[in-house]
């Protein structure tokens, strides 16, 4: 696995039994991806200010940072009088919105298809959109609210269908299709824009 760390360093993880030379050769073929990922990491580390673009409910919105409030799309966020980074203030607020909205939405979906869920948790995950445990705990990434509703709905349905099929077999995908016919479009959106959100 190859990744660019937030500090801009390149990290290559070679699976046990694989050759390091093969991993280095793979890395040498990924120069375009490395350049794009490095630029993305640099952009992520820039401070947020008026004009910073981010995804919110499926649209790219520009932040409007005022002395006592921050506007992010239709969200007005109070800005504390003590100095805080704009990013921390905005992300804390948006995560609170996700905490209020995502669990009831997930439970409502579960009720419509007769799936039992023991708990829904909202987390700040850096590499996944959601998870389903064997104990029936559904974990959702707060950033689902940055996506179009049809895409975040798909992620929720995806995790719920793991309560029926704890794998990614053909049966699992048939279950997903039965509750979310637009799942292929949602997957395309995630492939195209998912890295911009995470």
What is the oligomer described by this structure? single chain
Determine the fraction of residues in helical runs and give it as a percent range: 40-55%
Largest sheet data:
3 strands, antiparallel
| CATH architecture heading of the largest domain | 2-Layer Sandwich
Strand content: 15-25%
Overall form: flat
Q: Provide the CATH superfamily of the largest domain.
A: Metalloproteases ("zincins"), catalytic domain
Q: What string gives the helices and strands in order?
A: EEHHEEEEEHEEEHHH
Q: Number of DSSP strands? A: 10
Q: Give the terminus-to-terminus CA distance.
A: 17 Å
Your description of this structure?
This protein has 198 residues and is α+β, with helices and mostly antiparallel strands. The chain has three domains: 2-45, no CATH class; 53-90, no CATH class; 94-197, 2-Layer Sandwich (Zincin-like), CATH 3.30.2010.10. Helices cover 45% and strands 19% of the residues. The protein contains six helices and ten strands, in the order ββααβββββαβββααα. It has helices spanning 20-28, 31-45, 86-113, 149-161, 170-179, 183-197, and strands spanning 2-4, 10-12, 53-56, 59-62, 64-65, 69-72, 75-78, 119-123, 130-132, 137-141. It has a three-stranded antiparallel beta sheet with strand order 5-6-7, covered by helices on one side. Strands 8-10-9 form a three-stranded mixed beta sheet, covered by helices on one side. The longest helix has 28 residues, at 86-113. The chain is flat. The model has no long low-confidence stretch (mean pLDDT 90).
